[in-house]
Amino acid sequence: MPNNNQCPEGHYPYTIKPGDTLNYIARRLEVNLQRILIANPGLNPYNLRIGQIICIPACPPNHIAVIIQSGDTLYKISQTYQVSTASIIEANPSIDPNYLRIGQRICIPRTCPPDYWETAQAMQMDIDILKEESDVHQTHESNYGDSTQTTRAIKVTRSQLQFDAAPVVFSGNYRRRYTENQSYPYYSDSAAGGQRGINVKDNFGIWHSFGYRVPLPQ
Question: Given this chain, do its domains 11-57 and 63-133 carry the same CATH topology?
């Protein structure tokens, strides 16, 4: 049987614990039982030994394993990895799309070159660090992270961004951060002198603040 260093690429070792059965392991790790048997030729499923190491297939061929982080949604993940939500659900038939668990492992179809995936994963790690270190983001998330109020991105180009919650077009390239016709959590604020602002969370869970001025009545 394998040891910690002998599981093939795309697999990870699992140590049998008291009370384990292959059915229980498959359900808990959300892996098809047949795939576990194929990954461990010669394994007797009726004679598992405590301390025995077996190989668990992380994902099917041409898929990549992703660990659910706080704030993740299927839509956010699909945008990050440039795949459809339907393809993610097809690759993970046991998941509840409306109830993703932090730490849950899901499989994403690999449709892009390997260097793109590595770049996307590195980008997501940087985003997670930014969210942890940014006082502004943490304040926004603490105060408004549970808000159900949304605004739709009605224009997203390389130079302009517009939301239906504001009567102006903002300058800047926000492609990938926002997707046209997609709705996003937001809240609005105001200040003296006709100054207004909206704060909108993007595809990666980062809050952005946009200010604009409303002409004062004559």
Answer: yes
